[in-house]
Amino acid sequence: MTAASTTRRLTSDQGPNPSRPQAVPGKVSENVATPAAASSRPRPEPPWASAEVPRGLPADVSAEPAAGVSTATPLGAIALFSALMHERSSGDELAKQLRAELKRYSAGEKLPSSRVLVDRFRVSPVTVSRALAQLAAEGLVVTRPGAGAFKAAPRATAPVGDTSWQEVALSAETAGEPVPRAVDASGVLVTLAASPPGVIEFNGGYLHQALQPTAAMAAALARAGRRPGAWNRPPVDGLPELRDWFARGVGGGVTAAEVLVTNGGQSALATALRALAPPGAPVLVESPTYPGMLAIARAAGLRPVPVPVDRDGVRPELLEQAFKATGARLFVCQPLFQNPTGAVLAPERRPEVLRIARAAGAFVVEDDFVRRLVHADAGPLPRPLASEDPDGVVVHVCSLTKATSPSLRIGCLAARGPVLERLRAIQVVDQLFVPGPLQEATLELVGSPAWPRHLRTVAAELKHRRDLLAAGIAERLPRLSVDHIPSGGYHLWARLPDGTDEQRLVASALRAGVAVPPGRPYFAAEPPAPYLRLSFVAVAGAAEITEGVRRLATAWDEP
Question: Nearest to residue 515, comparing CAs of 200, 209, 207?
Fold first, then answer.
C-alpha cells in the first residue's frame, strides 16, 4: 500500500564479473556456500500453491506472499486468505482421515505425535493442530499438554427412559386457564427452514446473500470489536447513540430516552405483547397477518381476534366493532407494506385508527418491519404512526434485520409513558441486554457511506425482482390473482381459485423444485379463500425467479 522510501537497485548483467566471491556493503555478511544437492523427497506444497484465488480477483495474480510484503497490502491479503482457506480444508481432510483410523485404536491409546503426523501426511503443524482440535471438540480424542493425544473413552449410552408423563404435565390445565398451552412455531419455521439443494426459495424472509451488505457489515464488526470498552456490559436500554439514531428514524419528537434497543423485531414483538396484555386476553390482529406474530400471541396465552384488511390497510369500522365486541386493549398492525398483502394504511385511516384505539383505552403495536426495504419507485413514505401520537397509544417496533442480514438481530421498541418501564422490565428479565459488540457494529454500519448505497442498491433490485415475478405470474399462471403490487417489502400475495387445495399445490411445487408457503398460517381464523405468498427476496437473482415461476406452473398442471 505504501511505496518504499528508497529505490531498489535493479539487477543487471552489466559491470564487473569477478572470478572470486566478494563482500558486498552492508551489516550482514554472508558466507559463500555451494548449493546442496536437490533432495529426492518432495517438499510439502505451500498453502498458497493449491489455494484458489478469491472470486473477483484476476486469475493470473500470484497468491504467494513475497518477502517483505505485508498482509495489509492487497497481495498480502490474497496470500493470507488463500493460506487460511487451504489450512481449513486441509484440517478438515486430515480430521476425516484420523477419524477413520481411530476405529482401530483402543480407548486411551495414544495417537502418533504431531511431528509424525506432519511427516506422514505432508501437512503443516497448524493443520495437525486444527484437525486434533476438531476431533477433541467431537469428543473423539483427549489432548494432554506435554503428553499428546489419546483416543477418548466411548460415551456412555443413556438409559432409555419413560417421558410419557410429560404429555400430561405439558397439557394439563390449571384452575381457570383459558387457553391451550401448546406453542405452534410452524408459521415461523416455514421461512427459517433450509430448503433442499436445488430448490428455489419463494418462501424466504431475508435478503439473499448476494443482496446483503456483507463487506460493510464485516468492516463495521471489525472496527466495532476494537473500540475501547466494546466487550464490556452495555447499558440495559442500549447504547445511547444507537437509541438516538432509532429515535430520529421514528420522528415526532420521540427521544432516545423513549427507545429500547432489542434483539431484533421478533423479540421486540414478544416483549410488547407480554407487557400489554395478560394471558387469556383478546388481542386484535390484522387478517391476514404475519404468522410469527400469531405464534407469539398464542405462546403468551393471548387470543388473536382477526380484523380484515384491504388494499388500504385495516378497515376502521371493523376495528371499532372488534374493540366493542371483545373488550380488547391491544391491536397489532403493520401500517407500511403489510405482511402478507403489501397494503399501506391510507392517509384518511391513520387518524381513525388512533382515535378508535384511544377511545377503547387500548394500545396499538406498530410493527414497522420493512421501512428500509422500499422499492425504487415508491416515492415518499408516510411517517410511522408513533410520530403522530403524543398520547402514548402507539408502541413502535422496528428492526434492521430485514434490510441487512438474518444474523444482525438489532431492533427497537419506542413508547411513551408508564408502559416504557414495563417494556424495559420484561426485556431485562428475558434477555438482560443486547450484546455490546453487535450494537457497536450497527452504529458503525449505519454511520458509514456504504449504508445509503446499500439501501439504494436493494431498492432498485427489489423493484426489478417484483416486476419480473409479477410479469411471470401474469404470463404463466394467469389463474393466480395478484390484486395489489406493493412498492415496498419483498413478496406478492396471490389468491388461488376457490376450491384449490393449498397444501396439495405446495407439496407439488416442492416436488417440482420450488418452495412456496400456503396462505392458511396467515389467518387467525378460517381463511376466506386459498392463497400463496410468493417471496422474491431470498432467491439468487432474476434467473431463479423466472425458473421458479416455470416450476410452479409445472406443479399447477400436475394431476
Answer: 200
pTM for this structure?
0.73
Per residue in 268-281, pLDDT tens? 999 999 999 999 89
Q: Amino acid identity, residue 44?
A: P
Cα dihedral value 520, 524, 528, 533, nearest 10: -40
Neighbour-count burial for 172-205, b at 16+ CB within 10 Å, e otherwise: eeeeeeeeeeeeeeebbebbeeebeeebbbbbbb
Distance of CA 93 to the CA centre of its chain: 29
When pLDDT is cut at 50, 70 and 90, the band that residue 190 belongs to is: low
Contact 415, 439 (CB under 8 A): no
**Which one-letter amino acid corresponds to residue 270?**
A
* Strand 313-314 with 303-310, pairing: antiparallel
pLDDT over 60 at 165, yes or no: yes
- Which helix (H) or strand (E) segment holds residue 142: the answer is strand 141-144
DSSP string for residues in 420-489:
HHHHHHHHHHHHS---HHHHHHHHHHHTSTHHHHHHHHHHHHHHHHHHHHHHHHHHH-TTSB-----SBS
Whether the Cβ atoms of residue 259 and residue 413 lie closer than 8 Å to each other: yes
21: pLDDT strictly greater than 70: no
539, amino acid identity: V
> Given the DSSP bridges, would you call strands 282-287 and 330-333 parallel, antiparallel or unpaired?
parallel
Which three cell numbers mark 182? 401448546
Q: How far apart are CA 140 and CA 148, in angstroms?
A: 14
Task: State yes or no: pLDDT of 401 exceeds 70.
Answer: yes
Residue closest to 86 by CA, chosen among 122, 125, 52, 57: 52
Four-point Cα dihedral 31, 33, 36, 42, nearest 10? 40
∠ Cα 299 419 326 (to 5°): 55
Cell of 444: 458503525
For the chain, how many helices (H) and strands (E)?
Answer: 16, 14
Instruction: State the Cα–Cα distance between residues 336 and 342, nearest whole angstrom.
Output: 8
Q: What is the CA radius of gyration of the chain?
A: 31
Q: Note whether 288 and 531 are within 8 A (CB).
A: yes
